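Q: What would this chain look like folded?
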Amino acid sequence: MLTERLALRQFRRADAEVVRAYRSDPEVARYQSWEAPLSTVDAEELVAEFAALDPDEPGWFQYAVELRDCGELIGDVGVNLHENRMQAEIGFTFARRHQGRGHATEAVSRVVDHLLVSQGLRRVSAECDARNTASARLLERVGFRQEGHRPEFTWLKGEWTDDLLFGLLARDWPASAAPVTRPPAALARAR
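A: My prediction, written as structure tokens:
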């Protein structure tokens, strides 16, 4: 999948070192389930698992997100397709030096558009640690509505954390969202 600035693709084994680097950043891992730093072996196993996944099958699939102009891997967007193939959950992780530039918003918007328009899903959901205000704002920018707040719900890294729950229905897309960066018409036809 393409956007104006990004390419979203399947992971390749060669991506392991970059994944290890950005997922080892304590600030990137702060609200995530894994511990930093991520070892080289763990990164290689994780990327091998990502590379073997099928985006059309129920379960998790991770899109590698790279800059189109130089091919630099800057993060990933995960999609957990439900068994009923009518809904999915998303999550995202981006290298700190690429945060705050609109890349995550652009990538998440493109994945949501693909899920709701191209795949015809009915609903996409997401959740985040309530302290992760940047992720919550990103989800709202894309068009998600906050649907719930679960106080002290998740035990994470030695403490109880609050979860924020978000949802987006197909009928509300893209009217609810900030403008979506879609691929130029010629690129869209080439997909």
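Residues 182-191 have pLDDT under 50 and may be disordered.
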